[in-house]
Amino acid sequence: MTHMASSNPTALVVIDVQNCFVNKYTKKIPEKIARYIKRQKFDHVLFTTFVLNKRSNLYKLLHWKAFYSSPDTSIHKTVSPFANHQNTFPRSTYSVFKSRKFLSFLKRNKIKEVALCGIDSDGCVLASAFDAFDLGYNVHALRLLIASSGGRKFDQAAKVVMSRNLAR
């Protein structure tokens, strides 16, 4: 995908490209995203991180026990040069669009169009895509910059779901 043609401010949202999610299925994603950030022009490049806490439903209902602290929760070194405290939004939910700080940033900067990339296509990317759509954002899922840490079958299924439900 090339830069989104729009007069509105746009944001590239890099979802959960963290050490704990980079594995044999997702290992190429950080470098692809880094190259994309260097090539494309967005008004804002935003990062999300998943950090588990005991209030999270993922902890309470699914009994997840990992993803509490660095180095697991740190942004992968390949894309970390583009991230800072002002453009990084931690959360303990599937969707970044549940984060008040993230939504406040989008509203304050008049962002109506978002391009999503990152890990996991079948979890946080998918949930964020649907929430963004439901909230009225123009959503672009960047298929070549999304993967699932669960493997190809989960990744392909999520991409089919996003294409079917969010494609123009």
How does this structure look, described?
By secondary structure, the protein is α/β, with parallel strands linked by helices. The chain has a single domain (10-166), classed as 3-Layer(aba) Sandwich (Rossmann fold). It is 32% helix and 20% strand. The protein has five helices and five strands. It has helices at residues 29-39, 57-60, 100-108, 121-134, 152-166; strands at 10-15, 44-50, 88-91, 113-119, 138-147. Helix 4 (121-134) packs parallel to helix 5 (152-166). The chain is globular and about 45 Å long.
The rounded distance between the terminal residues' Cα atoms is: 14 Å
Number of domain modules: 1
How many strand segments? 5
CATH class: Alpha Beta
CATH architecture term: 3-Layer(aba) Sandwich
* Separate helix tally: 5
Look at the helices and sheets and give the structural class.
Answer: alpha/beta
Write a compact overview of the structure shown.
Helix content is 32%, strand content 20%. The chain is α/β, with parallel strands linked by helices and 168 residues long. It has a 5-stranded parallel β-sheet.
List keywords for this structure.
168 residues; alpha/beta; Rossmann fold; five-stranded parallel sheet; 5 helices; 32% helix; globular
What order do the helices and strands come in, and which of them pair?
Blueprint: E1 10-15, H1 29-39, E2 44-50, H2 57-60, E3 88-91, H3 100-108, E4 113-119, H4 121-134, E5 138-147, H5 152-166
Parallel strand pairs: 1-2, 1-4, 2-3, 4-5
Helix pairs in contact: 4-5
